[in-house]
Amino acid sequence: MNKWLVASILIAIVAVSSIGGVYFFALNPQGTPETRTIIDSTGTSVEVPADVQRVVALRSGIVEMMVVLGAEDKLVAIDDYTAGGTGFGAYIASCCPQLMDLTVPVSGRSINLEEIVALEPDVVFVGGYGRLSWVDPLREADLTVVVAHFEEIGNFTRDLNIIAEVVGKEDKADTVASYIQSVLDKVDSTVGDVSAGDQIKAYFCSHDAFHVYGGTTFEHAQIVTAKGINVGAELTTWLPEVSSEQLLVWNPDVIFTLTGTSIDDILNDGRIQDVSAIKTGKVYAMPEDGWDFGSLRAILAIEYMASKFYPDKFSGIDMNQEANDFYQTVYGIDYTGPAL
Known about the structure:
CATH superfamily of the largest domain: Nitrogenase molybdenum iron protein domain
Low-confidence stretches: 1-25
CATH architecture of the largest domain: 3-Layer(aba) Sandwich
Structural class: alpha/beta
Distance between the termini: 69 Å
Strand content: 15-25%
CATH topology of the largest domain: Rossmann fold
Strand order of the largest sheet: 1-2-3-4
Number of domains: 2
């Protein structure tokens, strides 16, 4: 037997360095990589094909990342939000309307396992803590599943790099990750010197004034990163309802809410007229779905929030230009959302 063939058989795994950590190549008898092992967002080692061509993405944020990386042509199935052009999938569907014609094997919190298997994907991407229940059934169906969350600010570039490693777009990920870090660095350099005693008190509510994002949420992390104080930080249950009396006690300086919420309804609620944010009119809705979590735009939202907390520190910064720079660098298009 040829000695090089013997060597290639004996050397089954070759470790190489990568931007997300370390992964491995499995070699065929010709010495050509057939698979490699990556570490996903849960710390799980997953063996994936070296040349991934067919991808099922079961969350809008992951579909968005595939587009950011220039790998949308590998998608064979997407989530229902992107397919419907609604909610968190509205933005990326508007950028790539052709995606809306792909197979949609997910509806809310349910997946069509048989439909996914029939697509014969190389990889299935799952994201979000609430969707982890899908992982085991997918793997039991002999599918290759990679989890990429995009739910932790400090790990956004890690999760982007995980997807990039799987689909072979590491160079693009490097560029985007560097820019994302520069946005976070800019926020820190602008408001990082705000002392604890001078930090702005903030309240982040859902689609009305009385359901709040507590201390275990992504929205809380955004507030803290923007050098604000989340008045609801002690709450740990999901979107608990608070009373008008409690909101008066907390007396936030600024209120943020989700896209589509009626700002007028909050400002005109007679029960909370003595809240500082109501008196000063500092109540803001997120400009678009996806600015509060699950999207790279959530990083831009931190700068946006900081600009509302400390407008004097941002007096020389044009947030509309910041948004345009962000969208051009990350998505390759102009920002067309509401004025910031």
